[in-house]
Structure formats: C-alpha cells, structure tokens
C-alpha cells in the first residue's frame, strides 16, 4: 500500500509513505495546462462548483433564498417540493431549502474547526516526532497508537460528554479524534523526506538542520498532509453531521445538516423530502470534496 | 517458527494489549474527568427536579461517588477497581457498568458481525469483479461505487432504506429487534461504508499486484486470467484488505451508535447514545475501553493470520517484521 | 541458416499515453534460428524489451501491436488470441525476466511455482510434477533442490532466484527462451556463473535464445548474432564478430566506443602533475570499522559491515573502492565524509584528525569534501530549480550575494557542459545524464579538495556514462580535485582510477595501482572479478586484443 489515499479511508491506514509528489509535480502550473486538465474532468469541475456553492451559502445565504429558515407558515406545512418551496416545507411550514442553505454556515464552521484542530495539533506532533526522533518520537507515537485504538466515534462521544453539546464542542470532539491520523501521516512524510537522498545531499554540502527543515523537509512533506486534510474535510463533514444527527450539535431550531435530517425522521411516512433532500446535499458535498482530494492526490501530477 | 515461539508471541501481544487497555482507560479518564463538568452536577440538573437541588445535597452526592477526592486519588482508586473488572456504576441507573454493557452487547455483536460479513463479501466481490472484468464501462461503474459508499452519511442511508423498503414496499420491519428480518436493513446500512472501504483497498491492491513482475512470470508460464487473478494476485492483495478489516472492526462497533438510533434497535449503541445524553461518565468510559479492547483483539487476530498468507512476515521479536 | 524458428516482420508497437500514442518499436525485422543465440542490444528506451515482450504478447499496460507479424511455427503471435498465446507461453517459449528479486510470487513455495508450468500445460499430474520440479531445479544449478522446492522466494538469494526462474522457463522444454536482461540486477560474479550455466543448458537442450541486454560485453560473450536497436529500430544486425570488429552503423560505433567493458583502458586516468605527487596525502584512513547491532536472537550480536580498512587518497588522484553488493564500500565512503559514524579507526583529512570532528570542524570538512550520488533522480530536491540546487552549498556557507551566486552557478554549469538556460528549470525536466552533471556542479560549487563519487554512472546508459566519466577526468585535470570513486564495475574503474582497493565482506582483499591490479592480480577474488567482466575476450574494433 504505497500510495493509498483512498477517499474516506481513515487516516490510520495511510501509514505508508504517500506518493512522493511525483517528479513531474514540480513542473510549473500554467493556466492552459490547468484548463486542459479540468476540461477532461467534468465531474471534478462539478465538484469544485458544488463546494464553492456551499461555501457561498455559508457566508451569504441570502444569495440563494429569501425565506426565513426559522419561521414558517403553519398553514403551509408538509408542502411537497415545488416551485414555491424547492425542498418542500416541514411540520411547522418552514422552507426546507432555506434551512439547508442556512445550515451550511454551522456545518461548514464545525468542519473547518475540526480539520483545523486535527491539522495543527496532529501536524505539529508528527513533525516533532519525525524530525526530533529518539524518545520524543517514541513517546508521541505511543500516545498516537493508543488514540488510534479507540474508535473515532467513541472518542468523539467521550469528548462531547465532557465538553457538553453545541456546534463548536462537536467540532472540537471530531477534530481531536482525528489528531492521531494526522500525526501519523505527518511523521511518515517527514521520515520519508528526511531520509531522502536529496536531504542528505543538502546536509553533506553543509546546510544546517534548520535550513534542511525549512527548505527541504517541510515543503516536500506538506503536500500529502494537505491532501489528507482535504480528505479529512469530507470525513469531518460526515462525523459532525452524525453527532448532530444524534442530537449533540446545535440546539433546535438552529439548522444544521445533521439535525435537519434527524428532525425529518418522525415524518418518514408522509414527508420523504424532509430527510432525503438535505441528505442528498450532504452526500453530494462529501462526494465533491472526496473527488477534489483525489484530484489533488496524484491525478493532477500524473496527468502532466 | 515453532509452536512455542508463536505461543510466546501471543503472550507478549496479550501483555501489550493490557498496556493499550490501561492507556485507553487513562485517556478516557483524563478526557472525562479533567474536563469541566462533573457527573453529579449533570445528574442533578438532568435527573432530579430541575434546579431544585441545593449545594448540600450536591456535596453529599459528590462524596458518595468519590468526586471530592483529588484527581490522582480518584484515578488510582478507579484504576484499582477496573483492574478487577469493576468499571464502577452507571450514574443514571446505578447498575454496574460491566453488567449494563454485557447485557447490551449481544444484539450489537450480532449486528456488527452480520455487517462485517456483508462488507467483506460485497466489498471483496465487487473488487474482484471490477478488476477481473474486461469491459471498460463495467470496470469504471463498479470502481466508482466504493467512492459513493464512503461519501453517503450512514444515518441517511438508513432512513432512505426505511422509507423505500419498509414504508413503500413493506419488505422489512422499520424498527426494533424482532427476529432476523429486522436485522437486514441495519446490517446493510452498517455494512455500506465498511464494505466500500474494503472494496477500495482490495481493488487498489489487486491492480497493483497485477502489475507486479511475478504476475508477468505467471502469465509467461501460460497461466490463464482466472488463475493469475485468484491464485497469484488475490493472495498478495488480500494483506492490505485484511489490515483494513482489522482497523474497521472498532469503527463498526462505534457506528452501531448511529445505526441503532436510526432503527431504534436495542443494543450497545443505544446504551452509549443514552449515556452521552445523560452524561453518564462511568458508562461512557466503559464503552470507550470496550472499543479499545475490540480493536486490540481483532488486530491481534489479524496479525496472527498474516504469516499464513505471506511467509515473509514472521511473528517474532514483538513486532511484525519483514524478514 | 535453416528455416527460422521465430520470424518477426515489420513489427510496430506503440504505447498509449495521455498525449496520444507513442511509438516504441517501428518496423522491426528479426529472425531467430533453432538453437541460435541472438542478442538484442540497445540503451534504455530503444525498444528492445518491448520487442521481446511483444513476442509472448506480454506488453506492459497501454502497449499495443500496431502492425507486422511475429511468426512462430504455425502461429502469428502478433494477432493471436489469448487462448492461442497461452498455449505457446511457457510451453514453447520460456521467459526469463529481468529482476529475479521481484519476479517470483512471494506467497508461494518455489516448488509450486515451478510445477505450475507443468500443471497449466497438462504435462504432469500433481505427484509427477513434484518429482520433475526437483529435477528441474537441479538442472538449473541449485544445490539441495528438494529443500529449495519447499522454501519461499525470500529465503533464497538473488542468484538462486534467477536459477529458479530459469528452471521455470525451461520446465516445459521450450524451443525458444526469451531472456530479458536476465542478470543486470545481480553482482558481476553471480552474473557470470548464471550466464555460463544458461549457455550450457540451452546448448544441451538445443533451445534458441533471444537475449535482451544493454551490455554489449554480455552480448559479445554469449550471442552468435547481435541486433543493435536504437529509437525503436534495428540499426544493425549481423554475426557477433562482424558487428564488433566492423560495425557499419554510426550508432553501433558510438555504442562500442562507449562500452566500458570492451574498452581496454582506452581512456587512462589523468596524468598527475609531479608537484602534486610530492605533497602530503589528502585523506588517510586507518583501521576503519563499522559495526551494526543485529536484532536479538540466534547468531552473532553485531554485523561487521566494515572491518579494518586502511587506504590513502593522494591529492589530485583517484582512488577506487571496488566490490560487489554488501562489500562495505559505500559505508566506508560515507564514513570518510562523516555521514556515518565509524565504530573504530581513524580518518585524517589534510593531516587533521576528523574522526570525531564536531561543530565548526565538521562544517569545515563539509566544505572541503563533497559527494556525488548514484541516483541523480533522487539526489536533487524535486521542488528546487537547478540554480537553487547548484547554489545551495554557497548559501549554506553564506558565500557571496545573490548576484555573485547566480554568476557562479552559470560558471559551474558551463564547467559541466550544460547551457545556462537550464538554470531556471527543475530536475524533472532534465535527463538522467544532465541531472548527474547538475549534481557534479553542486559538488564543485565550494571548490572542494575531495569529491566522493558513489557509483556515479551506474544509473546511466553507457553512452552517457562515457560522457560523465570524461567530464570527471577533465575536472580533475583542471582543478586538481581528488576522487574517492565507489564502483562495482571494474571496467569503469580501470578508466578512471589511479589506485584501486578491492573489498569483499567488509574487508580489503587487495589494493594497488590500477595497472598492477589489472595485469597481475594476486588475490583469487580479484581474479574472479576480472574474469567476470563481460566482453573481456571479445574482438573489438580497436583490435587491441
């Protein structure tokens, strides 16, 4: 498993060195090359567009819908999807599309916080472990091994129990549960680069350790970790929405993608749109992020 | 590798497992105990008449549960009991944590076992067919399925299945633990993300193995496609897939929290969800330790299977290593 | 010549890439008569392997036969279907692959892998096959064949695995054997023994061989006819003596001139200015040793990778450390540069003891002694521009400002005969030979007194090898730099070294001046190494022998 970066695969599996940003990856990116690359991949373009739409929705929901996500028209409840309400209305007559659009803000925020925590903490731990070595590495990696042996969702649940409910709490819980994976990948990358011949070549021509770290190790090790971060965005969207579905996220009536779907559970028989449509948006977002991660991971480098 | 060497290896691994369990216990203790919020306050505010508990009663409760001791004392105290198999009592129900878990575990193991079998069968089958097929379109369609499988939220898949197969077609019961037919939908739901991962990893390593020079050697002998695929590539490719299965066993258990909630099934998942809901720290801690135990045991089993598949891997010296 | 066994006519093969099909073989004609050994010689990318693989229909992914025919008996293998090809593969055409270390299935026993040929073609039942396997392994020259049959590939050495692969190839008594660089992954002495054995075996069995090799020396020793390939075409084909002594195609001539194994000290090491010879030696190594602790278990506690090695590198001269894999030559060189810590012994650089140098002393050593690596693909940071690569040592020692460093980079590239236009490029955009030139330029940036060259040409094609060796010699003449030259290839060493140290199993077995060592070796191992140089006895265009 030398070049495993399968979308959705827990970071724990990615212990083998990731594909060295293949030699060709160093080639410069010209707009023309990028254009040709994208034209051949309509699915990727669609994914980028979808993710951009979600980001815009998070920051400016007003661009997509003028309807209030929190206040509905009780007379209008359980309206099926149609021109007036694209995703239909819920039991209180609230517009589901508007709730999904407004929910993007909380869900995106939680995702970014989660990945940020995992990336910064895990990345630093891995960097220190890989670069310093000796007992420091042993100690850090032992702790990482223990964290990896606890199923991520259980670890998140324990953290939620301790921290309490809420969007940020859930995000931190998900982030901490992914720290170990990042630490492991970062360390593997640092080790790979640190033992690369060109690093020794730099060392033997007199470059000092901080020069080696800043100019060779970090730039070459970071690529695969960033790819992992992209994949982790997808995983985090799923994990955050799962916890929100279980009811540990934002308190209703604030809309989050997870609790929206959870709320629709009670009306499975008569209002399919309450669960199905928000779920499609959620799945589409995750799929799009995974597709982008795959493009970043080698496909782009290999295509040139 | 003699029998006694394997025996020593297993013993050493079991010793390591105990260390991991201790560490998992410690981590969960730190998470649950060191962070703000304590179960007594939670219990008081959630369980009893809201806000009507006075400070004196709280202190009394704290003393009763030992929450007024310094953290280190509590830790050593709890660890001592944990070593004898006593993980404390549930704050919510007052029953021992171990009993609560033991009672909730069987239906969940049934569910996770069924899901694991389905995941391996479907995921492995998909990978085999996809890499074996000569039809380009079939390959591409099959190989894109796992990517879809890992992207759809488990709880949503469950709800959609209930909507279509229970409410519309009335094929399976939507909720509960009544008989084998009630196991079908939850097991399928739980199997999808796991099976997708198995398929992804197996397909990828099959494709890698098929490009290896030893496969070329086999072809040069005049061996047919099926023989090359099954007898040469699959055996080598199954190692990474086996690793994935080992790592996913714990996740299956954890995902049962979501699936059992969706299908209102009784089991460990529901108990866990409830424990988190009522901030039942001892019970949550018990579940976390159980998760680590399952992980450690399954991975020990996987490590013992490795050498049977690939002789280069010897189980000696404490760690798996390539000779 | 009797009717050919294999007859290739106008064969064209291309590979599908993202930018469209790329032709690999263009209109090749080639015959192999029954029992004949034909060598297909060429550099990487010449299409030689592709041609050989097309014969058995085992082209790598994306490869496609565009036209032509491959007649083999009643079959046209170029258009044959899978079923027809399967009947021929293994049974009538055997393949000996390139790298024995990865060509056997790691999860199956040797015996089962050999028996598979017999079973697939219905030549033996289960029990019968087991007996035949032992016989075949013995034929292939393996000792204890019954034991080997029960072992797994990783328990055998590279040479033994290649013998297993030969047993597989001859198992069904094929009429043709395709040997694709069968020994290039092995040490020279092993290579010689295996090729000798293959020779005897095929002669006994009357099997024809299509031998694919990059080494004209190997071809000269083994083949009755040689076909030279370049750019997907056969540029010359003829009887071995004729091709070697009277090459008609300019490319063949260039290849012959570059082939180190056929060149009899055509290029001799640079003469040394007398003034330099008088001076003190640059590097003195005394009793150098390196132990590695072995994992606990049965057997010895430590591995003596290097043991009691002593030598002296004179100023302006080249000392070669020669040995096969595992001889400790690279470890020794790395200890001299203090990239690996010695366990015992002493290293003096310009009279100063640097065995335990630290801090400023070590940096002074780094400045005066540089290293050129074997693999120019791995030794340059893929993210750096060539200018950054070449000026990195200058930056590290804070020499000059940006402008003067850029000027120095241009000057250095000029020294290694690269145009200044490559300064802005990245390593991936350069060829292997160009990258090695860049690596040499980097090593020269600080004007060091010692450059350690660790197999500097073994990853390069022969014609490029010759150019790089030439460059190293010129630089020595101009700058008076000393080289510590690590190589497994005695033919290369002969062209560059003034003195040679032969190592085996971590110890020095013999050392002396190049002439003395090549003309009158005293140690058996040296003699064996010399005899293993392929092509040593072949007639060449120069006719010196």
Automatic annotation (TrEMBL), chain A:
Gene3D superfamilies: MetI-like (1.10.3720.10)
Transmembrane segments annotated in the record for this chain: 43-64, 110-132, 139-159, 165-185, 225-251, 271-289
PROSITE patterns xrefs: ABC_TM1
Bilayer topology annotation: Multi-pass membrane protein
InterPro entries, per the entry: BP-dependent_transpt_permease, MetI-like, MetI-like_sf
SUPFAM superfamilies xrefs: MetI-like
CDD domains tied to this protein: TM_PBP2
Keyword Membrane listed: yes
Principal cellular location given in the protein's record: membrane
Domain of life where this protein originates: Bacteria
One GO CC annotation: plasma membrane
Keywords: Cell membrane, Membrane, Transmembrane, Transmembrane helix, Transport
GO biological process, one term: transmembrane transport
Domain ABC transmembrane type-1 residues, every copy: 108-293
Name of this protein: Peptide/nickel transport system permease protein
Naturally occurring in which organism (per UniProt): Geodermatophilus aquaeductus
TrEMBL record, chain B:
Main location: membrane
Subcellular location(s) per record: Cell membrane
Parts of the chain that traverse the membrane: 14-32, 109-129, 141-163, 183-203, 239-263, 283-302
Secretion signal span: none
An example Gene Ontology biological process: transmembrane transport
GO cellular component, one term: plasma membrane
Membrane topology recorded in Swiss-Prot or TrEMBL: Multi-pass membrane protein
Entry keyword set: Cell membrane, Membrane, Transmembrane, Transmembrane helix, Transport
Pfam families, alphabetized: BPD_transp_1, BPD_transp_1_N
Coiled coil: none
ABC transmembrane type-1 domain: residues covered: 105-306
Family designation: Belongs to the binding-protein-dependent transport system permease family.
Name recorded for this polypeptide: Peptide/nickel transport system permease protein
From TrEMBL, chain C:
GO biological process: peptide transport; transmembrane transport
SMART domains linked: AAA
GO molecular function: ATP binding; ATP hydrolysis activity
The UniProt record lists the keyword Nucleotide-binding: yes
ABC transporter domain segment(s): 8-256, 283-530
SUPFAM superfamilies linked to this entry: P-loop containing nucleoside triphosphate hydrolases
Keywords: ATP-binding, Nucleotide-binding, Transport
Keyword Cell membrane: no
InterPro entries attached to this UniProt entry: AAA+_ATPase, ABC_transp_ATP-bind, ABC_transporter-like_ATP-bd, ABC_transporter-like_CS, Oligopep_ABC_C, P-loop_NTPase
Family annotation (Pfam families): ABC_tran, oligo_HPY
Family: Belongs to the ABC transporter superfamily.
PANTHER family: D,D-DIPEPTIDE TRANSPORT ATP-BINDING PROTEIN DDPF-RELATED, TRANSPORT ATP-BINDING PROTEIN
Stored NCBIfam families: PRK10419.1 (NF007739), PRK11308.1 (NF008453)
Name of the protein described by the UniProt record: Peptide/nickel transport system ATP-binding protein
Organism (species): Geodermatophilus aquaeductus
């Amino acid at each position: 498993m030398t070049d495993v970066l399968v979308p959705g695969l827990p970071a724990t599996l990615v212990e083998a060195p990731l594909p060295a940003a293949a030699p060709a990856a160093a080639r410069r990116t010209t707009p023309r090359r990028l254009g040709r690359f994208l034209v051949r991949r309509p699915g990727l373009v669609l994914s980028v567009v979808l993710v951009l739409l979600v980001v815009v929705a998070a920051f400016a929901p007003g661009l997509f819908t003028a309807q209030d996500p929190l206040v509905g028209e009780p007379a209008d409840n359980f309206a099926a999807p149609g021109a007036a309400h694209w995703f239909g209305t819920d039991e209180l007559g609230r517009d589901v599309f508007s709730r999904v659009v407004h929910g993007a803000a909380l869900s995106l925020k939680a995702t970014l916080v989660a990945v940020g925590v995992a990336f910064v903490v895990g990345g630093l731990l891995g960097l220190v472990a890989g670069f310093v070595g000796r007992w420091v590495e042993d100690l850090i990696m032992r702790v990482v091994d223990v964290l990896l042996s606890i199923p991520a969702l259980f670890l998140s649940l324990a953290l939620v129990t301790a921290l309490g409910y809420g969007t940020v709490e859930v995000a931190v819980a998900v982030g901490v549960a992914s720290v170990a994976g990042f630490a492991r990948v970062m360390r593997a990358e640092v080790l790979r680069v640190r033992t690369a011949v060109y690093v020794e070549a730099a060392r033997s021509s007199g470059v000092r350790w901080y020069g080696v770290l800043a100019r060779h190790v970090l730039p070459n090790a970071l690529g695969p970790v960033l790819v992992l971060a992209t994949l982790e965005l997808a995983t985090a969207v799923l994990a955050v929405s799962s916890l929100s579905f279980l009811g540990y996220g934002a308190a209703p009536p604030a809309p989050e993608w997870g609790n929206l779907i959870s709320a629709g559970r009670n009306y499975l028989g008569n209002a399919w749109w309450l669960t199905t449509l928000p779920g499609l948006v959620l799945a589409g977002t995750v799929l799009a992020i995974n597709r982008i991660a795959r493009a970043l991971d080698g496909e782009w480098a290999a295509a040139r | 590798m003699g029998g006694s060497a394997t025996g020593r290896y297993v013993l050493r691994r079991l010793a390591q497992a105990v260390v991991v369990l201790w560490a998992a216990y410690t981590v969960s203790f730190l998470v649950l105990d060191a962070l703000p919020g304590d179960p007594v306050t939670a219990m008081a505010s959630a369980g009893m008449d809201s806000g009507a508990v006075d400070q004196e009663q709280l202190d009394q409760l704290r003393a009763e549960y030992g929450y007024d001791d310094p953290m280190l004392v509590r830790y050593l105290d709890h660890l001592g009991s944990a070593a004898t198999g006593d993980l404390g009592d549930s704050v919510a129900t007052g029953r021992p944590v171990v009993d609560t878990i033991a009672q909730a575990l069987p239906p969940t193991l049934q569910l996770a076992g069924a899901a694991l079998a389905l995941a391996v069968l479907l995921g492995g089958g998909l990978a085999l067919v996809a890499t074996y097929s000569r039809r380009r379109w079939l390959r591409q369609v099959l190989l894109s399925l796992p990517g879809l499988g890992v992207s759809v939220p488990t709880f949503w898949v469950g709800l959609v299945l209930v909507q279509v197969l229970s409410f519309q077609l009335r094929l399976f019961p939507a909720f509960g633990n009544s008989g084998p037919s009630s196991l079908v939908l939850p097991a399928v739901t739980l199997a999808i993300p796991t099976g997708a991962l198995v398929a992804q990893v197996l397909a990828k390593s099959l494709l890698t193995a098929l490009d290896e020079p030893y496969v070329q050697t086999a072809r040069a002998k005049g061996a047919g496609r099926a023989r090359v695929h099954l007898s040469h590539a699959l055996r080598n490719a199954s190692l990474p897939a086996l690793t994935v299965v080992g790592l996913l066993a714990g996740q299956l258990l954890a995902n049962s929290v979501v699936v059992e909630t969706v299908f209102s099934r009784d089991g460990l998942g529901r108990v866990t969800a409830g424990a988190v809901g009522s901030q039942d720290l001892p019970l949550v801690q018990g579940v976390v330790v159980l998760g680590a135990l399952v992980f450690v045991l399954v991975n020990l089993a996987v490590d013992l299977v490795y050498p049977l598949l690939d002789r280069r891997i010897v189980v000696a010296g404490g760690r798996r290593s390539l000779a | 010549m009797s009717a050919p066994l294999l007859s290739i006519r106008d064969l064209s093969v291309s590979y599908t890439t993202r930018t469209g099909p790329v032709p690999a073989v263009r209109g090749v004609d080639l015959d192999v008569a029954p029992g004949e050994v034909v060598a297909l010689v060429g550099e990487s990318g010449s299409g030689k392997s592709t041609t050989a693989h097309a014969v058995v229909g085992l082209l790598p992914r994306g490869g496609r036969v565009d036209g032509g025919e491959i007649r083999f008996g009643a079959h046209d293998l170029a258009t044959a279907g899978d079923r027809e090809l399967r009947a021929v593969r293994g049974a009538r055409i055997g393949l000996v692959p390139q790298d024995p270390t990865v060509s056997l299935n790691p999860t199956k026993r040797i015996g089962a892998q050999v028996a598979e040929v017999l079973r697939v073609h219905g030549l033996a039942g289960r029990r019968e096959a087991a007996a035949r396997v032992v016989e075949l392994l013995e034929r292939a020259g393996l000792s204890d064949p019954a034991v080997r049959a029960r072992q797994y590939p990783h328990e055998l050495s590279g040479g033994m695995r290649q013998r297993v692969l030969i047993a597989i190839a001859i198992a069904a008594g094929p009429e043709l054997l395709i040997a694709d660089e069968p020994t290039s992954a092995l040490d020279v002495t092993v290579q010689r023994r295996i090729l000798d054995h293959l020779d005897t075996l095929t002669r006994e069995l009357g099997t024809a061989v299509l031998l694919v090799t990059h080494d004209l020396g190997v071809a000269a020793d083994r083949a009755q006819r040689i076909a030279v390939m370049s750019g997907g075409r056969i540029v010359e084909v003829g009887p071995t003596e004729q091709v070697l002594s009277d090459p008609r195609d300019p490319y063949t001539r260039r290849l012959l001139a570059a082939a180190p194994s056929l060149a009899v000290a055509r290029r001799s090491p640079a003469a040394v200015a007398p003034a330099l010879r008088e001076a003190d030696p640059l590097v003195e190594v005394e009793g150098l040793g390196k132990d590695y602790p072995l994992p606990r278990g049965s057997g010895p506690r430590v591995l003596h990778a290097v043991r009691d090695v002593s030598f002296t590198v004179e100023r302006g001269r080249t000392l070669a450390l020669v040995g096969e894999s595992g001889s400790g030559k690279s470890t020794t060189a790395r200890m001299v540069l203090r990239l690996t810590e010695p366990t015992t012994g002493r290293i003096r650089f310009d009279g100063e003891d640097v065995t335990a140098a630290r801090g400023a002393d070590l940096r002074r050593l780094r400045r005066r002694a540089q290293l050129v690596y074997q693999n120019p693909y791995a030794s340059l940071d893929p993210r750096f521009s060539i200018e950054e690569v070449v000026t990195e040592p200058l930056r590290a020692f804070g020499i000059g400002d940006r402008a003067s460093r850029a000027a120095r980079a241009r000057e250095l590239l000029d020294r290694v005969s690269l145009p200044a236009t490559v300064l802005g490029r990245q390593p991936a955009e350069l060829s292997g030979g160009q990258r090695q030139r860049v690596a040499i330029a980097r090593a020269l940036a600080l004007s060091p007194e010692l450059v350690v060259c660790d197999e500097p040409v073994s990853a390069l094609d022969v014609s490029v090898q010759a150019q790089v060796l030439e460059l190293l010699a010129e630089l020595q003449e101009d700058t008076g730099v000393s080289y510590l030259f690590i190589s497994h290839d005695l033919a290369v060493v002969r062209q560059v070294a003034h003195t040679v140290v032969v190592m085996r199993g971590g110890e020095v077995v013999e050392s002396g001046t190049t002439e003395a060592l090549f003309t009158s070796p005293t140690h058996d191992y040296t003699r064996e190494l010399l005899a293993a140089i392929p092509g040593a006895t072949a007639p060449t265009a120069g006719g010196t022998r």
